[in-house]
Amino acid sequence: MVQRPYKRILLKLSGEALIGDGVYGISPAVIERIASEVKILHDAGVEVAVVIGGGNIFRGVAGAAKGMDRTSADYMGMLATVINSIALQDGFEKHGLFTRVMSGLEMPRVAEPFIRRRAIRHLEKGRIVVFAAGTGNPYFTTDTAAALRAVEINSDVILKATKVDGIYDSDPMLNPDAIRFDQLSYDECIMKKLKVMDTTSISLCSENEMPIVVFNLNVADNIVNAVLKQSVGTRIC
Known about the structure:
By secondary structure, the protein is an alpha/beta fold. It has helices at 28-43, 60-65, 70-94, 116-124, 142-152, 186-191, 199-207, 222-229, and strands spanning 8-13, 47-52, 99-103, 112-113, 128-132, 157-162, 167-168, 180-181, 183-184, 212-216, 234-236. The model has no long low-confidence stretch (mean pLDDT 91).
């Protein structure tokens, strides 16, 4: 059996990650790739929880910026994460992974309500748990939801999937000379305003000593390597 450095992880995915080569919506190919890598981790004995954003369908902050009431926009964003969570559940179950979607908003026909002890029990039984609808409250990002759920379920680490291979001192898409960090402290992330996660989520992780690994989702097997090899991305601790 493959040795594992982590017993339990929380994988944070952006909604945009599900778009793939498109401009909107959900790419079945991306779902398939994520599910296949999560299957490898599951087979290695790693307990996997997931938090997914909704930016591929609707982003609350963007809606508010265009004049929509922020609370209404955030609730719409939460519903978008539920759609993405159900898509992930379908992909995981096609790989033979028993999966539970747990929602911060009550919608019993499509998801279980989030109950901490029940979530932990699902993980202990080898089920994949997808946390939908963020924290269930407006004005909080899905990054904050990931930090909160990770602390609640006693995760060993948060894996933050992005479009680049770690954290840089400036945007590597715009600056070819940007410098990548191998490791950072929580305080450095906040003081340098690196914007890899919002301040609330970084502070919550800092207070609870929850490490974060930021890595590139678009590289094949990177989810597996981030867990089993710890050889990718930037570590915040």
